[in-house]
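Re: the 144-residue chain
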Amino acid sequence: MKQTVVWFGGGIALLLIGLKVWEYSYRSMAVDLEVYIGVIALLFLVGGLWIGKRWFTPTVEATLEKAALPSIPNPEALKQTGISKREQEVLEYLAQGYSNQEIADRLFVSLNTIKTHVNNLYSKLDVKRRTQAVARAKELMLIP
């Protein structure tokens, strides 16, 4: 962690020094305004692309973990519990942490329909709360 802070701080310091030198060139009229703004914009573009690629690209390990999870639910457990395909969709959204209204919006149904599906899931999975339903569904391998 300490090494990361030192490298990051050093990079920021070098960038600031470079920007100050560039600003001095502009103020001494050695560089036109358009060139000055263009170079700064280019620096921000390159920096933004680098940060985006470095921090927001999924790692190989995360991709492999995601691929290793079963995407097809256990058909025997589905038959045994009697969960319909629509209830299964609702269950997947519950596992992802969506509210009833958000699920209704995504599935293009009313809020009351989602509440009915959730209550049916509770009774079919023999649970009382949303978190219990998700845990039970994972236990039965109904959701990844």
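The domain at 68-139 is CATH 1.10.10.10 (Arc Repressor Mutant, subunit A).
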